[in-house]
Design brief:
single chain; about 260 residues; alpha+beta; six-stranded antiparallel beta sheet; two-stranded antiparallel ribbon; 8 helices; about 35% helix
Length: about 260
């Protein structure tokens, strides 16, 4: 009987061990017992989500996207995530983003038209002064080169850090492990050039309202997704991001020629 129980426990734990996703143990409360929370990438209309129009967005919202390209598929596969790109909404139907050609500003409508999935999140407590600083800095960076070296260095970092996220590792130990790996593996990357999520985080940092205390060069679009309310982040946020809704939901089923995402 004991051997059967051990086998059952191993079978239940195996998916977690293989995925190496972040976990959190919640102590018993008046309404529930001891709980193990597991990081989740599932969020969709009809499953805790909803479709929205662009009029619902507010300046400063973060858009996470995916598209049917080889680059996007590789990022999603490597980060075990449904998203591969991060965009900053500036308001008035405009966004700013860091892509292979550098930082650019363009209409939100183009993003929604091109991407297969666009999901919006909000940082609670932003005021107009924060948003204005963000806008000014984002526009000042248009034309800044893409952080290609940072992306290349991130590929092995994303894989190696899975060891820091094995189930049941205390969050403090996991954070220390990730920080150590990042210092060693990403120390040579540029912080005056940007990849997509690095650009979004730097915009918030420049506005004086950082989303996380971690270096923006460590953070992927998948990390931003897991910083939402109700999820288990690998990299801690100063406060959870609030889900706003899906501007578009049509997950890419196939790969197409490479695009900018």
């Amino acid at each position: 009987m004991a051997s059967l129980l051990r086998a059952a426990a191993l079978a239940a734990a195996l998916p977690l061990l293989l995925s190496a996703c972040a976990t959190r143990i919640e102590m018993p409360s008046e309404t529930s017992g001891l709980r193990l929370r597991v990081q989740s990438s599932v969020i969709a209309p009809g499953n805790g989500g909803e479709l929205i129009g662009a009029e619902v967005l507010a300046p400063g919202d973060i858009l996470l996207t995916s598209i049917a390209t080889v680059n996007s598929f590789g990022i999603r596969l490597g980060t075990f995530s449904p998203v591969s790109h991060a965009v900053l909404y500036l308001g008035d139907g405009q966004i700013a983003e860091a892509v292979g050609t550098g930082v650019r500003a363009r209409p939100l409508a183009e993003v929604v038209d091109e991407e297969q999935m666009v999901v919006a999140f909000r940082v609670p407590g932003l005021v107009e002064a924060d948003v204005e600083k963000m806008r000014e800095w984002a526009h000042s960076q248009v034309g800044t080169r893409y952080n290609t070296a940072g992306v290349l260095l991130n590929a092995p970092f994303v894989l190696n850090r899975r060891l820091c996220e094995l189930p049941l590792i205390p969050s403090a130990v996991s954070a220390y492990c990730i920080s150590g790996l990042a210092t060693v593996q990403l120390g040579a990357s540029r912080n005056d050039q940007f990849f997509c999520s690095q650009f979004v985080l730097e915009a918030y940092r420049q506005a004086g309202v950082p989303i996380t205390d971690a270096d923006p060069r460590w953070v992927s679009p998948a990390d931003l997704l897991h910083m939402r309310e109700g999820d288990v982040p690998s990299i801690a946020a100063t406060q959870p991001l609030r889900y706003v809704g899906h501007l578009k939901y049509n997950p890419p089923p196939v790969l197409a020629a490479d695009g900018p995402a």
